[in-house]
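Notes for week 9. Today we move from apo structures to complexes. The key idea is that a small molecule is not decoration. When we ask for a structure prediction with zinc ion present, the ligand SMILES becomes part of the input, just like the chain. The input block below holds both the sequence and the ligand string. Read it once before you look at the output, and try to guess where the molecule might sit.
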Amino acid sequence: ENAPVRRPNGDGEIHPLSGLLFCKDCGAKMHIRIDYRNGGKRHVAYCSEYHKGKAKNPKCHSPHIIDADLLMQTVAEVLKKIEDYSISNRAEFEALVKKNLAMQQTDQTKKQQKRIPQITTRLEQIDKVLNKLYEDNALGTIPQDRYEQMSQKYSEEYYTLKTELATLQEQLSAFENAGGRAQKFLKLTERHAAFTDLTPAILNEFISRIEVHERDQKRARYAIQHISIYFNYIGRFENEVTQLAEPTEQKIRQMREEIEEAKREKSRAYHRQYSREYRARNLEKQREYDRIKAREYRARRKAQAAAAQ
Ligand SMILES: [Zn+2]
């Protein structure tokens, strides 16, 4: 639960979601810029790696663009749902959090649990080596510069591993204390039960990160896009409660149909506009033709009159 780094965009503004958004595919931070096109003002988040330009081996192959203001609405909806549920069903909420944390534990923490004995074994080895080195140096059986070089190398490894071990143990104990985490999250929701406005401070209290997936149709104006919200204390909390905010299969189909219909309507509008312009152009040609014919007719009449005289 580190505080995210929040940076103003080019306009000196800090969006409430700044520092919380991450690209699902490359893991990079997403940046938020303001889009003034079409006379509006939209906040658009995009993967910072993709937008780093045409690198030879780009870390990310797609922009992951998302409307940050719409995303704010979704986040607010999800938070409100969790909040309502957790306050009216405390026991069920706690059980859900525990179940959820246990599920997350299986993937990530199993690896971490295996890593711990590896680290402790190596730490013991290094400790022995360092003791031996110290003895050798005291007895004068190893040159001073050699001693310094070796002891520096081993103590660096020692402290790196120590730090890694402390981090792992902290993370694991956090998972073990699922009940405590649910309680902490409940306290948080109770404190903000009446909130109406999602301030950056509240967002950061509740959310540790949001992963933005790529849209189902890239570069489409309308597409379905998934996000994963990681909450403080309770992690990724996706279940019956939050799914209320997720569209159902039927809803997705309906959304797709609406998108298709919008596309067809756009195409129809384009053709209507085109034929209108075509007719207008034709009309112009028709009038031009009439004018030419009238001129020719007058010229002929004039010639005939001249010939008659
Ligand atoms: Zn990316």
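Residues 4 and 19 are 5 Å apart (CA to CA).
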